[in-house]
Amino acid sequence: MTPAQLFWTIDEIAAATDGQPHSDAAANITANITANITANISATSITGISIDSRDTKPGDLFVALPGTASDGHKFLPAALAAGASAALVTQIDNAVALPQICVRDCLQALRQLAMAGRQRFQGIEFGITGSVGKTGSKDMLWHALSQFGSCHASQRSFNNHIGVPVTLASLPADADFAVQEMGMNAAGEIASLTRLTRPQIGFITRIADTHREFFTSTADIAAAKAEIFQRLEGLSTAILNHDDAFFENLRTAAIQAGAKKVISFGRHPEADYRLLSIDHHDAGMMIHASLAGSPCIFALRMYGSHLAENAMGVLACVAAAGLPADKAAAALVDCLPPTGRGRRSSGIYHSRNISIIDDSYNASPASMSAAFASLANTPPQIMVLSEMRELGEATAAAHAALAPHINKLAPRLVITIGAAMHDMLDGLDESISGFAAADISAAIAHLTQSICDGDRIFIKGSNGSGAWRVRDALCAAITPDAPQNTVKGASHAA
Hints:
This protein is α/β, with parallel strands linked by helices and about 500 residues long. It has helices at about 10-15, 40, 75-80, 105-120, 135-145, 165-170, 190-195, 220-225, 245-255, 305-320, 325-330, 365-375, 395-400, 400-410, 420-425, 440-450, 465-475; strands at about 10, 20, 45, 50, 60-65, 85-90, 100, 125-130, 150-155, 175-180, 200-205, 235-240, 260-265, 275-280, 285-290, 295-300, 345-350, 350-360, 380-385, 415, 435, 455-460.
């Protein structure tokens, strides 16, 4: 998502991070040598930032972050082999012929580089948070803004204390727009990320009970999400969902934080960017809307009213930047949902025609409800559901509450993964076959032997509970129209 190209020199990175550059580690240069680097090395261009050697590209700066399972310093040879131009380290490895910038703390240095990246950026910075819909909204906003100039956005769900600095450190100075997704697991985390991001336009998608393991009430979740407004700059605009139960709380928080303008979206009669109606069809949805009082009809190749609602928030963001929202709306027809977030595909799986509805990236009570609603016109024959995480004391009740919605869809088979989701099977109608899989392999095996020709298969669950592994297994064997891009499981904030 970076049409403009990043350029850092090693000298610039060293200056931003208070680092000590070393040009020739293989020549046994000791860690206390700080100045003897050659001009050609110091001027070397860095064209990307990487924290994983498996994702490293030629020209990248590889940041050797410490981890709970392994230390990034162990992967310096792999980063070199992948084409890295330099590495950010806390200890020089003289055996690796890679320019290395030695710092006291790699994560802190990454934050410093992020601050430098944000400081030199002169375009419009957008910040997005919310309990659900962050990544999909970020992708739609990136697509919409790309119609008007170069836009840089966080990759995948890079929304936490590591992902946000990576995105900002990768921000091209000459980009016109930047879109940063921000997530959290606790109060104060959005505030910390906002101090780095310093958005001009802050967008909250929706507040929901997705963090109850870490919060005592939904109101506390709303207050934590509202931290995004604490460092609004420039245009200083808040974009809020008027349908949200905490709309007034969020509006008050935005104004108290200094927001110059609040723009609302949703179905509410007083919403500035109002969703009037949705016509569902096989290829997606036709949206009827009012954009600040102007009628607009546009198409989305996506499914689900929640995505239509988030699209209204995206258009509100575009308008807040002084750009024509109607032009952005027309462009959204070419925006597809990312892998794992409602993307639909079809193909041949073991000689049987199947369709896959892939919503496997994450799950919460709110996103489950939205997903089930999107299936009303084309209910699946098979549902694969892994348990929802981070619900605390609400876990049992939240899973049990899914059963009535599933009964309305009346699938032939429901395969569950995880103890909390297994318990939900007790609430299903007798006409629905339920299978509590002992593990992912058992789920895949039972699914494979249960598929009939023409089946629609819906897959959803929290990232950590592994529904995406079932998706990957299907995609590895399906032809010819399977999704081509798969997402590895990764921890992230919500």
